[in-house]
Specification:
- With 450 residues, the protein is an alpha/beta fold.
- The protein is 58% helix and 6% strand.
- It contains 19 helices and 6 strands.
- β1 and β2 form a beta hairpin.
- α1 packs parallel to α13 and α13 packs antiparallel against α14.
- The protein starts with 5 loop residues before the first helix and ends in a 16-residue tail after the last helix.
- The C terminus is likely disordered.
Protein backbone atom coordinates (compact mmCIF):
# COMPACT_ATOMS: atom_id res chain seq x y z
CA UNK A 1 0.00 0.00 0.00
CA UNK A 2 2.84 2.40 0.81
CA UNK A 3 5.29 1.41 -1.92
CA UNK A 4 4.20 3.92 -4.55
CA UNK A 5 6.03 7.23 -4.23
CA UNK A 6 4.72 10.56 -5.53
CA UNK A 7 7.19 10.56 -8.44
CA UNK A 8 6.29 7.02 -9.55
CA UNK A 9 2.56 7.69 -9.24
CA UNK A 10 2.84 10.92 -11.22
CA UNK A 11 4.88 9.24 -13.96
CA UNK A 12 2.41 6.37 -14.29
CA UNK A 13 -0.78 8.45 -14.17
CA UNK A 14 0.51 11.05 -16.64
CA UNK A 15 1.61 8.40 -19.16
CA UNK A 16 -1.61 6.41 -18.68
CA UNK A 17 -3.62 9.59 -19.23
CA UNK A 18 -1.77 10.22 -22.49
CA UNK A 19 -2.51 6.64 -23.58
CA UNK A 20 -6.19 7.25 -22.82
CA UNK A 21 -6.10 10.36 -25.01
CA UNK A 22 -4.33 8.45 -27.79
CA UNK A 23 -6.95 5.69 -27.61
CA UNK A 24 -9.76 8.25 -28.11
CA UNK A 25 -8.18 9.83 -31.19
CA UNK A 26 -9.87 7.15 -33.30
CA UNK A 27 -13.37 8.28 -32.34
CA UNK A 28 -12.43 11.97 -32.03
CA UNK A 29 -11.42 12.21 -35.71
CA UNK A 30 -13.56 9.35 -37.03
CA UNK A 31 -10.61 7.15 -37.97
CA UNK A 32 -10.70 3.39 -38.54
CA UNK A 33 -7.85 2.64 -36.14
CA UNK A 34 -7.61 -0.47 -33.96
CA UNK A 35 -6.86 -0.58 -30.24
CA UNK A 36 -4.00 1.69 -29.09
CA UNK A 37 -1.79 0.33 -26.29
CA UNK A 38 1.48 2.23 -26.69
CA UNK A 39 2.71 5.47 -28.20
CA UNK A 40 4.55 3.56 -30.92
CA UNK A 41 1.35 1.74 -31.86
CA UNK A 42 -0.48 5.08 -31.89
CA UNK A 43 2.06 6.81 -34.15
CA UNK A 44 2.06 3.91 -36.61
CA UNK A 45 -1.73 3.75 -36.85
CA UNK A 46 -2.32 7.50 -36.90
CA UNK A 47 0.23 8.07 -39.66
CA UNK A 48 -1.53 5.38 -41.68
CA UNK A 49 -5.13 6.58 -41.16
CA UNK A 50 -4.81 10.34 -40.59
CA UNK A 51 -5.80 11.07 -44.19
CA UNK A 52 -9.24 9.57 -43.56
CA UNK A 53 -10.16 12.17 -40.93
CA UNK A 54 -13.88 13.03 -41.02
CA UNK A 55 -14.57 16.77 -40.97
CA UNK A 56 -17.94 16.87 -39.22
CA UNK A 57 -16.88 14.28 -36.66
CA UNK A 58 -13.84 16.42 -35.82
CA UNK A 59 -15.95 19.57 -35.62
CA UNK A 60 -18.47 18.01 -33.21
CA UNK A 61 -15.74 16.48 -31.04
CA UNK A 62 -13.73 19.72 -30.94
CA UNK A 63 -16.79 21.77 -30.02
CA UNK A 64 -17.66 19.31 -27.25
CA UNK A 65 -14.12 19.42 -25.85
CA UNK A 66 -14.03 23.23 -25.92
CA UNK A 67 -17.35 23.47 -24.07
CA UNK A 68 -16.17 20.96 -21.45
CA UNK A 69 -12.90 22.84 -20.84
CA UNK A 70 -14.59 26.24 -20.68
CA UNK A 71 -17.37 25.09 -18.37
CA UNK A 72 -14.82 23.51 -16.05
CA UNK A 73 -13.66 27.03 -15.19
CA UNK A 74 -16.94 28.94 -15.55
CA UNK A 75 -19.38 26.55 -13.84
CA UNK A 76 -17.67 23.50 -12.42
CA UNK A 77 -20.77 22.09 -10.70
CA UNK A 78 -22.90 22.12 -13.84
CA UNK A 79 -23.38 18.58 -15.33
CA UNK A 80 -21.84 19.60 -18.63
CA UNK A 81 -21.07 16.08 -19.85
CA UNK A 82 -24.63 14.85 -19.28
CA UNK A 83 -26.04 17.99 -20.92
CA UNK A 84 -23.84 17.55 -24.01
CA UNK A 85 -24.69 13.86 -24.34
CA UNK A 86 -28.39 14.66 -24.13
CA UNK A 87 -28.23 17.45 -26.74
CA UNK A 88 -26.01 15.59 -29.21
CA UNK A 89 -28.04 12.38 -28.88
CA UNK A 90 -31.21 14.28 -29.76
CA UNK A 91 -29.44 15.98 -32.69
CA UNK A 92 -28.10 12.62 -33.91
CA UNK A 93 -31.60 11.11 -33.85
CA UNK A 94 -33.48 14.10 -35.26
CA UNK A 95 -30.99 15.08 -38.00
CA UNK A 96 -29.78 11.55 -38.84
CA UNK A 97 -26.16 12.74 -38.69
CA UNK A 98 -24.85 9.22 -39.21
CA UNK A 99 -26.16 9.13 -42.75
CA UNK A 100 -25.93 12.84 -43.61
CA UNK A 101 -22.60 13.77 -41.94
CA UNK A 102 -20.91 10.39 -41.53
CA UNK A 103 -20.63 10.71 -37.74
CA UNK A 104 -20.38 7.30 -36.08
CA UNK A 105 -22.81 6.48 -33.29
CA UNK A 106 -22.59 4.05 -30.39
CA UNK A 107 -24.77 1.49 -32.15
CA UNK A 108 -23.50 2.12 -35.68
CA UNK A 109 -22.52 -1.53 -36.04
CA UNK A 110 -25.71 -2.81 -34.38
CA UNK A 111 -23.86 -4.75 -31.69
CA UNK A 112 -25.83 -3.49 -28.68
CA UNK A 113 -28.51 -5.92 -27.57
CA UNK A 114 -31.17 -5.19 -24.99
CA UNK A 115 -31.32 -6.94 -21.63
CA UNK A 116 -28.89 -8.22 -19.01
CA UNK A 117 -26.78 -11.39 -19.31
CA UNK A 118 -28.37 -14.51 -17.89
CA UNK A 119 -26.65 -16.20 -14.92
CA UNK A 120 -24.78 -19.47 -15.48
CA UNK A 121 -23.68 -22.24 -13.16
CA UNK A 122 -19.90 -21.94 -13.31
CA UNK A 123 -19.46 -25.17 -11.38
CA UNK A 124 -20.99 -27.17 -14.22
CA UNK A 125 -18.76 -25.70 -16.93
CA UNK A 126 -15.99 -27.84 -18.40
CA UNK A 127 -12.86 -25.88 -17.43
CA UNK A 128 -9.23 -26.92 -17.78
CA UNK A 129 -7.90 -25.34 -14.57
CA UNK A 130 -4.27 -25.94 -15.53
CA UNK A 131 -4.84 -23.65 -18.51
CA UNK A 132 -7.11 -21.07 -16.90
CA UNK A 133 -5.52 -20.64 -13.47
CA UNK A 134 -2.05 -19.19 -14.39
CA UNK A 135 -3.38 -16.30 -16.53
CA UNK A 136 -6.16 -15.72 -13.99
CA UNK A 137 -3.57 -15.23 -11.24
CA UNK A 138 -1.58 -12.82 -13.42
CA UNK A 139 -4.73 -10.86 -14.33
CA UNK A 140 -5.70 -10.64 -10.65
CA UNK A 141 -2.28 -9.34 -9.58
CA UNK A 142 -2.05 -6.81 -12.42
CA UNK A 143 -5.64 -5.73 -11.84
CA UNK A 144 -5.03 -5.09 -8.16
CA UNK A 145 -1.75 -3.28 -8.86
CA UNK A 146 -3.44 -1.01 -11.40
CA UNK A 147 -6.35 -0.38 -9.05
CA UNK A 148 -3.94 0.45 -6.24
CA UNK A 149 -2.11 2.93 -8.49
CA UNK A 150 -5.37 4.60 -9.52
CA UNK A 151 -6.58 4.72 -5.89
CA UNK A 152 -3.36 6.31 -4.62
CA UNK A 153 -3.47 8.92 -7.39
CA UNK A 154 -7.01 10.03 -6.61
CA UNK A 155 -6.36 9.79 -2.89
CA UNK A 156 -3.90 12.65 -3.30
CA UNK A 157 -6.23 14.64 -5.57
CA UNK A 158 -9.28 14.31 -3.32
CA UNK A 159 -7.40 14.64 0.01
CA UNK A 160 -9.31 11.57 1.20
CA UNK A 161 -7.93 8.49 2.94
CA UNK A 162 -8.52 5.26 1.01
CA UNK A 163 -8.13 1.70 2.26
CA UNK A 164 -6.43 -0.55 -0.28
CA UNK A 165 -7.41 -3.76 1.58
CA UNK A 166 -11.01 -2.59 1.27
CA UNK A 167 -10.43 -1.92 -2.43
CA UNK A 168 -9.07 -5.48 -2.80
CA UNK A 169 -12.14 -6.89 -1.05
CA UNK A 170 -14.45 -4.89 -3.32
CA UNK A 171 -12.64 -6.05 -6.47
CA UNK A 172 -12.70 -9.67 -5.29
CA UNK A 173 -16.41 -9.53 -4.53
CA UNK A 174 -17.19 -7.84 -7.86
CA UNK A 175 -15.24 -10.41 -9.86
CA UNK A 176 -16.68 -13.32 -7.89
CA UNK A 177 -20.28 -12.19 -8.49
CA UNK A 178 -19.51 -11.19 -12.07
CA UNK A 179 -18.23 -14.68 -12.87
CA UNK A 180 -21.79 -16.03 -12.54
CA UNK A 181 -22.77 -13.74 -15.45
CA UNK A 182 -19.63 -14.38 -17.55
CA UNK A 183 -18.45 -10.81 -16.97
CA UNK A 184 -15.02 -9.52 -17.91
CA UNK A 185 -12.45 -9.26 -15.06
CA UNK A 186 -13.08 -6.06 -13.11
CA UNK A 187 -10.33 -3.61 -12.13
CA UNK A 188 -10.11 0.05 -11.18
CA UNK A 189 -10.26 1.97 -14.46
CA UNK A 190 -8.13 5.10 -14.68
CA UNK A 191 -10.22 6.69 -17.44
CA UNK A 192 -13.60 5.97 -15.83
CA UNK A 193 -12.33 6.99 -12.40
CA UNK A 194 -11.08 10.26 -13.86
CA UNK A 195 -14.45 10.84 -15.50
CA UNK A 196 -16.28 9.95 -12.31
CA UNK A 197 -14.11 12.39 -10.36
CA UNK A 198 -14.60 15.15 -12.92
CA UNK A 199 -18.40 15.01 -12.72
CA UNK A 200 -18.23 15.40 -8.94
CA UNK A 201 -18.60 11.84 -7.58
CA UNK A 202 -16.80 11.40 -4.25
CA UNK A 203 -18.26 8.27 -2.62
CA UNK A 204 -18.82 4.61 -3.64
CA UNK A 205 -22.54 5.35 -3.66
CA UNK A 206 -22.02 6.93 -7.07
CA UNK A 207 -21.04 3.52 -8.45
CA UNK A 208 -24.33 2.09 -7.23
CA UNK A 209 -26.23 4.88 -8.99
CA UNK A 210 -24.23 4.24 -12.18
CA UNK A 211 -24.95 0.49 -11.97
CA UNK A 212 -28.69 1.15 -11.61
CA UNK A 213 -28.68 3.59 -14.54
CA UNK A 214 -26.66 1.24 -16.77
CA UNK A 215 -28.94 -1.68 -15.90
CA UNK A 216 -32.04 0.41 -16.61
CA UNK A 217 -30.65 1.64 -19.92
CA UNK A 218 -29.80 -1.90 -21.04
CA UNK A 219 -33.28 -3.07 -20.14
CA UNK A 220 -35.41 -0.18 -21.40
CA UNK A 221 -33.40 2.46 -23.30
CA UNK A 222 -31.01 0.54 -25.54
CA UNK A 223 -32.22 2.31 -28.67
CA UNK A 224 -31.67 5.73 -27.06
CA UNK A 225 -28.00 5.21 -26.17
CA UNK A 226 -27.42 3.85 -29.64
CA UNK A 227 -27.75 7.43 -30.96
CA UNK A 228 -24.93 8.87 -28.79
CA UNK A 229 -22.11 10.11 -31.08
CA UNK A 230 -18.83 8.32 -30.38
CA UNK A 231 -16.88 11.54 -30.94
CA UNK A 232 -18.74 13.18 -28.04
CA UNK A 233 -17.84 10.31 -25.71
CA UNK A 234 -14.24 10.58 -26.92
CA UNK A 235 -14.15 14.29 -26.12
CA UNK A 236 -15.51 13.65 -22.61
CA UNK A 237 -12.89 10.93 -21.99
CA UNK A 238 -10.10 13.21 -23.26
CA UNK A 239 -11.30 16.05 -21.02
CA UNK A 240 -11.22 13.77 -17.98
CA UNK A 241 -7.78 12.36 -18.87
CA UNK A 242 -6.31 15.84 -19.25
CA UNK A 243 -6.94 16.43 -15.54
CA UNK A 244 -4.49 13.64 -14.71
CA UNK A 245 -1.57 15.32 -16.45
CA UNK A 246 -0.02 17.81 -14.03
CA UNK A 247 3.20 19.78 -14.10
CA UNK A 248 3.16 20.99 -10.49
CA UNK A 249 4.28 17.69 -8.98
CA UNK A 250 7.30 17.17 -11.31
CA UNK A 251 8.41 20.75 -10.66
CA UNK A 252 8.05 20.19 -6.91
CA UNK A 253 10.13 17.01 -7.14
CA UNK A 254 12.84 18.71 -9.20
CA UNK A 255 12.99 21.60 -6.72
CA UNK A 256 13.15 19.43 -3.58
CA UNK A 257 14.84 16.21 -4.77
CA UNK A 258 16.46 16.42 -8.24
CA UNK A 259 17.27 12.70 -8.26
CA UNK A 260 13.62 11.92 -7.51
CA UNK A 261 12.70 12.89 -11.07
CA UNK A 262 14.50 9.79 -12.39
CA UNK A 263 11.88 7.25 -11.17
CA UNK A 264 9.18 9.53 -12.60
CA UNK A 265 10.80 9.62 -16.03
CA UNK A 266 11.48 5.87 -16.10
CA UNK A 267 7.88 5.09 -15.13
CA UNK A 268 6.49 7.68 -17.55
CA UNK A 269 8.39 6.52 -20.63
CA UNK A 270 8.09 2.85 -19.66
CA UNK A 271 4.31 3.16 -19.49
CA UNK A 272 4.18 5.25 -22.65
CA UNK A 273 6.26 2.87 -24.77
CA UNK A 274 5.28 -0.50 -23.24
CA UNK A 275 1.67 0.06 -22.19
CA UNK A 276 -0.28 0.55 -18.97
CA UNK A 277 0.02 -3.07 -17.82
CA UNK A 278 3.80 -3.04 -18.05
CA UNK A 279 3.76 0.48 -16.65
CA UNK A 280 2.17 -0.81 -13.44
CA UNK A 281 4.88 -3.46 -13.13
CA UNK A 282 7.59 -0.87 -13.78
CA UNK A 283 6.07 1.51 -11.21
CA UNK A 284 5.96 -1.16 -8.48
CA UNK A 285 9.45 -2.44 -9.36
CA UNK A 286 10.99 1.03 -9.26
CA UNK A 287 9.34 1.77 -5.93
CA UNK A 288 10.65 -1.49 -4.43
CA UNK A 289 14.16 -0.82 -5.78
CA UNK A 290 14.02 2.75 -4.44
CA UNK A 291 12.98 1.55 -0.96
CA UNK A 292 15.73 -1.09 -0.87
CA UNK A 293 18.31 1.37 -2.18
CA UNK A 294 17.50 4.01 0.43
CA UNK A 295 17.30 1.58 3.34
CA UNK A 296 20.45 -0.24 2.24
CA UNK A 297 22.47 2.97 2.68
CA UNK A 298 21.18 4.37 5.98
CA UNK A 299 22.43 7.50 7.71
CA UNK A 300 25.39 6.59 9.93
CA UNK A 301 26.56 9.69 11.80
CA UNK A 302 29.43 10.38 14.22
CA UNK A 303 28.30 12.06 17.45
CA UNK A 304 30.02 14.38 19.88
CA UNK A 305 29.05 15.79 23.26
CA UNK A 306 27.60 19.25 23.71
CA UNK A 307 29.75 21.01 26.29
CA UNK A 308 28.32 21.18 29.79
CA UNK A 309 25.60 18.62 29.01
CA UNK A 310 25.10 14.90 28.46
CA UNK A 311 23.58 15.57 25.03
CA UNK A 312 25.24 14.07 21.94
CA UNK A 313 24.69 15.48 18.46
CA UNK A 314 26.09 15.08 14.95
CA UNK A 315 29.62 16.43 14.59
CA UNK A 316 28.99 17.19 10.91
CA UNK A 317 26.37 19.77 11.98
CA UNK A 318 28.08 21.06 15.14
CA UNK A 319 31.90 21.08 14.68
CA UNK A 320 32.48 22.53 18.19
CA UNK A 321 31.24 19.35 19.92
CA UNK A 322 33.59 17.55 22.30
CA UNK A 323 35.25 14.27 21.31
CA UNK A 324 36.32 11.53 23.69
CA UNK A 325 39.72 10.12 22.69
CA UNK A 326 39.57 6.41 21.96
CA UNK A 327 35.74 6.39 21.81
CA UNK A 328 33.86 6.46 18.51
CA UNK A 329 30.17 7.32 18.95
CA UNK A 330 27.90 6.38 16.05
CA UNK A 331 24.18 6.81 15.47
CA UNK A 332 22.22 4.72 12.94
CA UNK A 333 18.94 6.13 11.63
CA UNK A 334 17.38 3.02 10.11
CA UNK A 335 16.38 -0.54 10.78
CA UNK A 336 19.20 -3.07 10.46
CA UNK A 337 18.51 -5.88 8.00
CA UNK A 338 20.17 -7.97 5.31
CA UNK A 339 20.32 -5.15 2.71
CA UNK A 340 22.39 -2.70 4.81
CA UNK A 341 24.75 -5.05 6.69
CA UNK A 342 27.71 -4.43 4.41
CA UNK A 343 27.05 -0.66 4.31
CA UNK A 344 27.06 -0.48 8.11
CA UNK A 345 30.34 -2.40 8.34
CA UNK A 346 31.87 -0.24 5.59
CA UNK A 347 30.99 2.97 7.42
CA UNK A 348 32.42 1.69 10.71
CA UNK A 349 35.72 0.77 9.04
CA UNK A 350 35.82 4.16 7.33
CA UNK A 351 35.30 6.04 10.61
CA UNK A 352 37.87 3.93 12.43
CA UNK A 353 40.49 4.69 9.78
CA UNK A 354 39.64 8.40 9.76
CA UNK A 355 39.79 8.73 13.56
CA UNK A 356 42.69 10.88 14.81
CA UNK A 357 43.10 8.69 17.93
CA UNK A 358 43.24 4.87 18.02
CA UNK A 359 39.71 3.62 18.55
CA UNK A 360 39.23 1.30 21.53
CA UNK A 361 35.47 1.61 22.01
CA UNK A 362 32.59 2.02 19.57
CA UNK A 363 29.35 3.31 21.10
CA UNK A 364 26.24 2.65 19.01
CA UNK A 365 23.33 5.01 19.63
CA UNK A 366 20.49 2.65 18.67
CA UNK A 367 17.63 5.09 19.26
CA UNK A 368 16.91 5.20 15.52
CA UNK A 369 16.93 1.40 15.08
CA UNK A 370 13.30 0.27 15.13
CA UNK A 371 13.87 -3.33 14.12
CA UNK A 372 16.55 -5.87 13.28
CA UNK A 373 16.48 -9.18 11.42
CA UNK A 374 18.39 -12.45 11.73
CA UNK A 375 20.80 -11.57 8.91
CA UNK A 376 21.78 -8.33 10.64
CA UNK A 377 22.30 -10.14 13.96
CA UNK A 378 24.53 -12.71 12.28
CA UNK A 379 26.53 -9.97 10.58
CA UNK A 380 26.85 -8.05 13.87
CA UNK A 381 28.24 -11.15 15.57
CA UNK A 382 30.99 -11.28 12.96
CA UNK A 383 31.62 -7.55 13.37
CA UNK A 384 31.88 -7.94 17.16
CA UNK A 385 34.38 -10.80 16.81
CA UNK A 386 36.40 -8.88 14.21
CA UNK A 387 36.55 -5.77 16.41
CA UNK A 388 37.60 -7.82 19.45
CA UNK A 389 40.53 -9.15 17.47
CA UNK A 390 41.63 -5.54 17.03
CA UNK A 391 41.01 -4.83 20.73
CA UNK A 392 37.93 -2.69 20.04
CA UNK A 393 34.88 -3.12 22.24
CA UNK A 394 31.27 -2.69 21.05
CA UNK A 395 28.90 -0.74 23.36
CA UNK A 396 25.19 -0.21 22.74
CA UNK A 397 22.92 2.55 24.06
CA UNK A 398 19.22 3.42 23.78
CA UNK A 399 18.30 -0.03 22.40
CA UNK A 400 14.54 -0.46 22.04
CA UNK A 401 12.93 -3.33 23.90
CA UNK A 402 11.75 -5.20 20.80
CA UNK A 403 15.18 -4.92 19.21
CA UNK A 404 16.90 -6.15 22.35
CA UNK A 405 14.45 -9.04 22.66
CA UNK A 406 15.32 -10.18 19.15
CA UNK A 407 19.03 -9.78 19.88
CA UNK A 408 18.52 -12.07 22.87
CA UNK A 409 16.87 -14.73 20.70
CA UNK A 410 19.77 -14.74 18.25
CA UNK A 411 22.45 -14.80 20.98
CA UNK A 412 23.79 -11.45 19.80
CA UNK A 413 23.60 -10.08 23.35
CA UNK A 414 25.72 -13.02 24.48
CA UNK A 415 28.33 -12.16 21.85
CA UNK A 416 28.36 -8.45 22.76
CA UNK A 417 27.96 -8.93 26.50
CA UNK A 418 24.90 -7.89 28.48
CA UNK A 419 27.02 -5.52 30.54
CA UNK A 420 27.78 -3.56 27.38
CA UNK A 421 24.21 -2.29 26.96
CA UNK A 422 23.34 1.10 28.46
CA UNK A 423 20.31 3.33 28.89
CA UNK A 424 22.02 6.40 27.43
CA UNK A 425 24.97 7.30 25.24
CA UNK A 426 26.59 9.20 28.08
CA UNK A 427 26.51 6.14 30.34
CA UNK A 428 28.24 4.13 27.62
CA UNK A 429 30.88 6.83 27.13
CA UNK A 430 31.56 7.01 30.89
CA UNK A 431 31.93 3.24 30.95
CA UNK A 432 34.41 3.41 28.09
CA UNK A 433 36.44 6.11 29.86
CA UNK A 434 36.79 4.07 33.03
CA UNK A 435 37.13 0.62 31.48
CA UNK A 436 40.48 -1.06 31.32
CA UNK A 437 40.27 -3.02 28.10
CA UNK A 438 43.97 -3.81 27.87
CA UNK A 439 46.83 -3.51 30.34
CA UNK A 440 46.58 0.25 29.95
CA UNK A 441 43.24 1.98 30.45
CA UNK A 442 41.64 4.80 28.58
CA UNK A 443 42.14 7.84 30.81
CA UNK A 444 39.03 9.62 31.96
CA UNK A 445 38.77 12.98 30.25
CA UNK A 446 37.89 15.82 32.59
CA UNK A 447 36.86 19.20 31.25
CA UNK A 448 35.96 22.41 32.95
CA UNK A 449 32.39 22.12 31.69
CA UNK A 450 31.70 18.65 33.11
Amino acid sequence: ENLLSISVLNGFSSAAAMLIIFSQVKSFFGLSMSRVDTIINFVEQYSEHCKTTKLWTTVMASATLVVLLVMKYLWRTFPTAFFLITITTFVAWYCDIEQKAGISLVNSEGNITAGLPAPVNIFETDVDWSTVLPPAVVISILGYMESASVSKKFEMKSKMRLSLPQELFALSLANMLGSFFQAYPTTGSLSRTALNYQVGSRTPFSSLIVAIIVGSVLLFFTQVIGYIPLCVLAAIAISAAMNLITIEEPLYIIRTDPFGILPLLITFFGTLFLGAEYGVIIAISISVVEVIWRTSRPQVKILGRLGGTTIYKEISRFPHLLNTPGVLIIRIDARLYFANNSWFWTRINKYIKESQDPVRFIVIDAEGINSIDASACYALKNIVMSLKEHKILFLWANVKRDVKTFMLKTDLIKAIGDQHFFDSVHDAVRFAQNKQFTTSSIPSITTDDE
